[in-house]
Amino acid sequence: MKKFLFSLIAAGTLLLSGCASTITSQVTTFHEWPTDLKEKTFAVETMPGQENDPEFKVYAAMLGERLQGMGFNNSKDLSSAELKVVMEYGTLVSEIQLPMALWSPRFDPFWQIHFSRLNRRSAFYYPYYYPYYFGRQNSYYMMSDFAATRSFLHQLAISISDRKSGKTLANIKVSTEQSSPRISKQMPYLLESAFTEFPGENGHTSEIKLLISK
What we know:
single chain; Double Stranded RNA Binding Domain; 2 domains; 5 helices; 7 strands; globular
């Protein structure tokens, strides 16, 4: 009985792990990251237009927490920070139109007998259906209309530079294509993906997959 229960639990675990959802992001990092960086105090700079944006403040706090988890210290005061961090984000919308396939009696085996007789008596019926036919011979479908498929490319750009010299130490660009238009839903995963392999190979684009928490 115990062996049976153990097998049942193991099978359930495998089933759940196989059904786990993931989010895939493309991450590209260009950097001249110093190997002996000692001062790790940072501050997120507010760019023009971000000063009174509550959405930006939420994302900036999330970015600060992510950097602190990597051993950086958040000074919250740009004048006393060694590193300046700039964050920008946005969403691009793309739409693809695909033909829809509709059933047509013209190519149904039963109605083919009917239409074949009409075609012999009149040239009206066949030209009417022929322009819409596609696919292999004796297909039951015709091309009738178009369906639009919309996707959203959520993008995040993070720049880290030396505040005193102004030298850029790292530029990180992250993007993920999703069906949801809400970038707020994707931002935790974009931030996590940005630093998963940081600093990583200079100029290399990685595909990062993360489990989606329910």
